Amino acid sequence: MASRIDWESQIGKRLRLRDLHVFLAVAQHGSMAKAAAHLGVSQPAVSEVVADLEFALDVKLLERGPHGVEPTNYGRTLLQRSITAFDELKQGVREIEFQKDPTAGELRIGSVESIASSILPSVILGFSQQYPRVVLNVDQIVTPTMELPRLRSRSLDLVLARISAVPREDDDINVEILFEDRVVVAAGAHSKWARRRKIDLAELANEPWALLPGESRNTRVLQETFKARGLPMPKACVLTFSVHLRANLLANGPFITAFPASVLRFYADRHALKALPVKLPPQSWPVAVVTLKNRTMNPVGRAFIDYFKRFTSTIDLSDSPVAKRSAAARP
Known about the structure:
Layout: H1 7-12, H2 17-29, H3 32-39, H4 43-57, E1 62-65, E2 68-71, H5 73-100, E3 104-112, H6 113-116, H7 120-130, E4 133-141, H8 144-152, E5 158-162, E6 173-181, E7 183-188, E8 209-211, H9 217-228, E9 236-239, H10 243-252, E10 256-260, H11 261-271, E11 273-275, E12 285-292, H12 299-312
Helix pairs in contact: 2-3, 2-4, 3-4
């Protein structure tokens, strides 16, 4: 029968945050020597801390592998809990700082390009005016699913995404809807199609399209629409994830694309784009903020999410790219 660990005598009096910090450094660097150099201490001092931890827990935490020192199963458990513990402490410090000065703080955001390049700049502009000393660290991401490990490792506070790309079945992931978006067909304002009041889908079948590669929401909506009409899916002349590239292609050439309505709303005037009167099936394409379910929310993060929701509630995503007055968009 395995012996139980006595918290008071073996752990509570002997396990220190400094020890966990050293263990984290070893696990992250994959070497006691590299961890010692990073921490500015000697390698024997690092080895002693790890040995004391293993003695206190009565398990082996590290083992040498082909790529250096690696955590054992016990070590991975302690590593994950240590990351969580340090993150909670950091969040506690941030909350105290926010209580002392609600206008200051830092927020780490991951955002897909279609949000980062369209609505996010306007949100940041208004939010920064209200919270001038908050630092927003924004990373542009390709797909939300690739960034879930960064959420779980606490290197991101939140991810802005389109919900169709987020695995909602994950128990530790929280998805909060910010606003409802939809797909629209767009062309340049100079295009021969821009002056038409009615366009039949069949007329666009042989036009030059700029589409997203792979199984994107934009592409699926088009596939379903053309299929319902008994028409083949148009052959793309350009395949790219880049919103900027597609917008410029439309502005300077005969190309057609499918955009989220929110992207067109913010790109229409900038690049002289126009939504085409093409009938698409009823849609719901939510834009969401993704966070860890059991993590204490950064207080600046809650303020940012609330501001984002208030801002987007003022935006008109109808066929016209004209939004409600910007004055009304300032909560």
